[in-house]
């Protein structure tokens, strides 16, 4: 029983850090632009497929396709911001909510059209197998992905706190008009944030592709969980998203363990509802 | 707004006569089926509009109320042989109660937070029904074949009665929306939509009126759910509780014009035929082309016509004057 419990906690942490990385990308976009990107999960799916095809067609291991995923998703983010999202930013709020749903449906079904709805798996990635530590099994690809996610999250954090562009992003998040008055090109910050958020989820996709099933609808669940993580952590808060990702990962596996695995996502959503009821601004929001 | 002009009444009656004659002219099942869907989604969009368009709560979880309506009447019919018309009322009441129970804790949430909370709520309901043995879990429920009659809410030989019942439901929901929109409550709703804080200062009980809006909306949406169950005679979580239905409802309202009485119906009249026809023509191989078009359509509407076509009409009307 204790062994199983420890195993569940380990599993929760392993998925939790990936959630953190996905959610950091989302919270960046949300915080800067006040846009909820419902296509975020589908960007993840595109990252996973990029990694899958590089492996299948050219034999590139997912670990080495991370830079490609990053660049591709960065460009996709730029394009989608430039041609779609920036156009609805001044429109009614309902349009801002609905537009990314459109992008999401479009991308997921484009993937069905191009690559069929089949489930795929990268069969022999460089990282495979498990380490046994006592009775606890630690999956190697999951462990490496987790370490990778933490490192990338840390880099994002440092980028935001230490570089000029990063500080400009944070300033825009706090007060758009004041940032504009300080000579920050907020339009440019918007596109950088959107592209950066997309690139981060692309990296998460490459990590996930080392052990997770790859299929066109994979973004749905991950996307929804990412929203809960972001709102739980507090709107626009990078640290909040990081911590909330771990909480959600643990809640999902422990809830599945103690209650019923079929309800593991429902438990996550329930935690979200309870959190926003008690503390609408989220854990670290203001 | 309060008094309808003669022109509005006469054009309304004209459209109604055309709709009553429609199935007598187009007797094939497909056009009748499309029109039934137009009415059904039109009704749900009108219901959404009461809470979204007027009171400013953008719900992406309407499908939960739709599902609760469908499941309640079907469960009562199958297990206790209770007449579906009674089941319709019970389903509506249960949906309204659930709406109040979920709406109360969410009463401080605005904008994006409310939208995501409503998605989370819808997903919880779906997960629960997917695992709830009493209502057939993932396998769903098949309704018993009863004798064809209005009393049984079941017709096998023709779609015609379903068509007229659904048209009547749509009109009921429009009347409810009209009464709400033109009453004092409608003005309270709009004040809440503009600003919670200002509404509070003006002495409006924000929590209470938000709950009323959600409950009315839930009741009407559940009615459409019962209708759907009686129409298709089969239901499972994958057909009555999935997120795309909620999105469709929001989209129809937005396309038609949220915050106007007729807007959602116009939206349904445009979008449902388009989505049904592309589905029938392109969707049969499961290639996803129909959904690609649908997704592109949503994106284009949001970018180029975010205020809805109803706004377009009234703008032209104003200019003409």
What is the structure about, briefly put?
The complex is a heterodimer of chains A (286) and B (321). Chain A contains eleven helices and two strands.
Question: What topology emerges from the helices and strands here?
Answer:
The complex is a heterodimer of chains A (286) and B (321).
Chain A: H1 2-33, H2 40-58, H3 66-88, H4 93-115, E1 130-133, E2 136-139, H5 140-162, H6 164-174, H7 176-181, H8 186-208, H9 218-233, H10 238-258, H11 264-278
Antiparallel strand pairs in A: 1-2
Helix pairs in contact in A: 1-5, 1-8, 1-9, 1-10, 2-3, 2-4, 2-8, 2-9, 3-8, 5-6, 5-8, 6-8, 9-10, 9-11, 10-11
Chain B: H1 6-25, H2 29-54, H3 62-80, H4 84-103, H5 111-131, E1 141-142, H6 160-182, H7 184-194, H8 196-201, H9 206-232, E2 234-235, H10 237-240, H11 243-256, H12 263-282, H13 289-304, H14 309-320
Antiparallel strand pairs in B: 1-2
Task: Tell me what you see in this structure.
The complex is a heterodimer of chains A (286) and B (321). By secondary structure, chain A is an all-alpha fold. Chain A has eleven helices and two strands, in the order ααααββααααααα. Chain A has a two-stranded antiparallel sheet. In chain B, α2 packs parallel to α6 (160-182), α2 crosses α12 (263-282) and α3 runs antiparallel to α4. Chain B is globular. Chain B has a domain at 29-241. Chain B has helices at 6-25, 29-54, 62-80, 84-103, 111-131, 160-182, 184-194, 196-201, 206-232, 237-240, 243-256, 263-282, 289-304, 309-320, and strands spanning 141-142, 234-235. In chain B, strands 1-2 form a two-stranded antiparallel sheet. The longest helix of chain B is centred in the C-terminal third of the chain and has 27 residues, at 206-232. Classes of the chains: A mainly alpha (286), B mainly alpha (321). At the A-B interface, α3, α4, α9 and α11 of A face α5, α11 and α13 of B.
